[in-house]
C-alpha cells in the first residue's frame, strides 16, 4: 500500500471524527512516503499528521511534525511559496494551542501575505488564515480585536464555500464563543444554534467538532444561569471528547471545570467536588500550560469544600490559588472564599490581611471598600454562626 491510500483512509477517519484511527493512518502514510522517497508526498502526510495531533492535544508532537514538514522549504522560493505558507499556517495554529500567541500571529500574518499575493483575497486558504488570526486573538483574550478577523473569515467562507460547509460552521462557532465571552448572550445563542445545526447535519452529533460547539453552548447556558441545561449539554459532549482527545487536552479539562461550576451553582456539592478533582488532577500535570484551568480547579475545589463546611480543608486550595493570581487580576470568589475560611476558623489576623486585596478587587475607594468589607464580615458572621454551633 502506498502513502496515498493511507492518507485517504486517514482523511475519511478525520471527516467522521475518528481521531485515533486518523492518527494511525497518517502515521503509516508518513512512513510510506519516507520509504518511497517522495518529498512532496512526505510533506503532505506530515501536515496531515500534525493536524490530527493538534486536534488530539499532542501539541509537542504536532510541533515536531511541522518542523519536519518545513525542512527544505525556503521562504523566498517562488516555486514553493504556497507550500511554505501552508506550513506557516499550520505552525500558527499549533502555536495558538501552545498559548504562544505573539509568535502565532507573526506566522499567520506571514502566511496571509503569501496567500493573498498568490491566490487573491477571496480564496478559501486566505479565509482559513484570517480565521486563525481571529482565533489567536480570541484565545489571547483580545476580544474586541478578534471580532473583525472572525467576522471577515465567516463572510469569506460563506461567499466561497457556502453555508452548508463545516468550515462555515466552524466560523459560526468561533464567533459564538467570542460573543459568549463578550456576554452578548442573544447573539451568541443565535450563532451557536446555527453552528450546531450545521455540524450535526454535516458531521453528526458524535463528531468532536460538534462536541466542542456543545461545550461553548453549555458555557452560554451556565452564564445565563440555566445550570441543569448546561450539565445536560456537557454530558452529551463529554463522552465524545473523552474518546477522541488526550486526557490532558485543555478543552477536556475546561469541560470538567464547567460541569463542576454548574453543579456547584445547583448545590450538587459532592458531585461538583468530583468534577473539580478530575480537572485539578489533569491540570497539575502541566501547571504552566494549564495555569487558567488550574486556578479554576483550585477555586472550585475550595468553594465546594467550603459549602460542605470543611473550611480547614478548603483553606489550602484558596491559598494555593492565590499564589497563581497576578496583582491586577480580578478574582473576588477566591478572596471571598479564603476570607470566609479564615473567619470561620477564627483566624482574624489573616482575614484582616486580605482586606486591602478585597478593596483592590472591588475597584473602589479605600473608605467605601472598608465599609463594604465590614458589612461582609457581619453578613458572613450571621450566615455561618449556626454552622459552627452545629459542628460543635
Largest sheet composition: none
The portion of residues assigned to helices is over 70%
The value of Rg in angstroms is 24 Å
Please report the distance between the alpha carbons of the first and last residues: 74 Å
Strand content: under 5%
What's the tally of helices?
20
Order of helices and strands: HHHHHHHHHHHHHHHHHHHH
Mean pLDDT: 86
**Could you name the ranges where pLDDT drops below 50 across 5 or more consecutive residues?**
358-371, 384-392
The beta-strand count equals: 0
- What structural class is derived from the secondary structure elements? mainly alpha
Overall shape: it is elongated
Task: Walk me through the topology.
Blueprint: H1 3-15, H2 19-35, H3 39-56, H4 59-70, H5 81-97, H6 101-119, H7 124-139, H8 143-161, H9 166-181, H10 185-202, H11 208-223, H12 227-244, H13 250-265, H14 269-283, H15 291-307, H16 311-324, H17 332-344, H18 348-353, H19 355-362, H20 366-391
Can you tag this structure with a few keywords?
80% helix; single chain
Give the gist of this structure.
By secondary structure, this protein is mainly alpha-helical.
Question: Mind explaining what this structure looks like?
Answer:
- The chain is an all-alpha fold.
- Mean pLDDT is 86; it is low at 358-371 and 384-392.
- The chain contains 20 helices and no strands.
- The chain is elongated.
Amino acid at each position: 500500500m502506498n502513502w496515498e491510500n493511507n492518507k485517504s483512509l486517514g482523511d475519511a477517519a478525520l471527516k467522521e471524527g475518528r481521531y485515533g484511527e486518523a492518527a494511525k493512518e497518517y502515521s503509516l502514510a508518513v512512513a510510506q512516503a519516507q520509504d518511497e522517497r517522495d518529498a512532496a508526498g512526505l510533506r503532505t502526510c506530515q501536515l496531515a499528521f500534525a493536524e490530527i495531533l493538534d486536534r488530539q492535544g499532542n501539541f509537542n508532537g504536532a510541533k515536531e511534525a511541522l518542523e519536519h514538514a518545513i525542512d527544505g522549504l525556503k521562504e523566498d522560493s517562488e516555486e514553493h511559496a504556497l507550500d511554505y505558507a501552508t506550513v506557516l499556517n499550520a505552525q500558527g495554529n499549533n502555536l495558538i494551542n501552545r498559548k504562544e500567541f505573539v509568535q502565532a500571529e507573526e506566522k499567520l500574518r506571514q502566511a496571509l501575505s503569501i496567500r493573498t499575493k498568490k491566490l487573491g483575497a477571496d480564496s478559501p486558504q486566505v479565509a482559513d488564515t484570517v480565521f486563525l488570526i481571529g482565533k489567536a486573538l480570541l484565545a489571547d483574550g483580545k476580544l474586541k480585536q478578534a471580532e473583525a478577523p472572525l467576522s471577515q473569515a465567516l463572510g469569506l467562507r460563506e461567499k466561497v464555500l457556502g453555508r452548508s460547509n463545516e468550515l462555515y460552521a466552524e466560523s459560526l462557532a468561533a464567533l459564538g464563543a467570542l460573543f459568549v465571552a463578550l456576554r452578548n448572550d442573544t447573539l451568541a445563542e443565535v450563532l451557536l444554534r446555527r453552528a450546531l445545526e450545521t455540524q450535526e447535519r454535516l458531521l453528526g452529533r458524535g463528531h468532536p467538532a460538534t462536541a466542542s460547539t456543545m461545550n461553548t453552548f453549555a458555557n452560554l447556558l451556565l452564564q445565563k444561569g440555566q445550570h441543569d441545561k448546561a450539565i445536560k449539554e456537557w454530558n452529551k459532549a463529554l463522552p465524545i471528547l473523552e474518546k477522541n482527545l488526550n486526557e490532558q487536552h485543555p478543552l477536556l479539562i475546561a469541560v470538567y471545570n464547567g460541569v463542576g461550576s454548574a453543579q456547584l451553582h445547583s448545590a450538587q456539592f459532592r458531585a461538583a467536588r468530583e468534577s473539580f478533582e478530575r480537572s485539578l488532577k489533569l491540570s497539575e500535570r502541566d501547571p504552566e500550560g494549564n495555569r487558567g484551568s488550574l486556578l479554576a480547579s483550585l477555586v472550585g475545589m475550595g468553594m465546594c469544600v467550603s459549602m460542605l463546611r470543611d473550611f480547614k480543608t478548603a483553606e489550602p486550595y484558596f491559598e494555593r490559588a492565590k499564589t497563581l493570581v497576578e496583582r491586577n487580576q480580578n478574582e473576588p470568589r477566591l478572596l471571598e472564599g479564603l476570607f470566609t475560611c479564615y473567619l470561620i476558623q477564627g483566624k482574624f489576623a489573616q482575614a484582616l490581611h486580605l482586606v486591602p486585596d478585597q478593596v483592590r478587587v472591588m475597584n473602589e475607594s479605600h473608605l467605601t471598600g472598608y465599609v463594604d468589607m465590614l458589612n461582609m464580615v457581619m453578613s458572613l458572621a450571621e450566615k455561618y454562626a449556626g454552622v459552627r454551633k452545629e459542628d460543635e
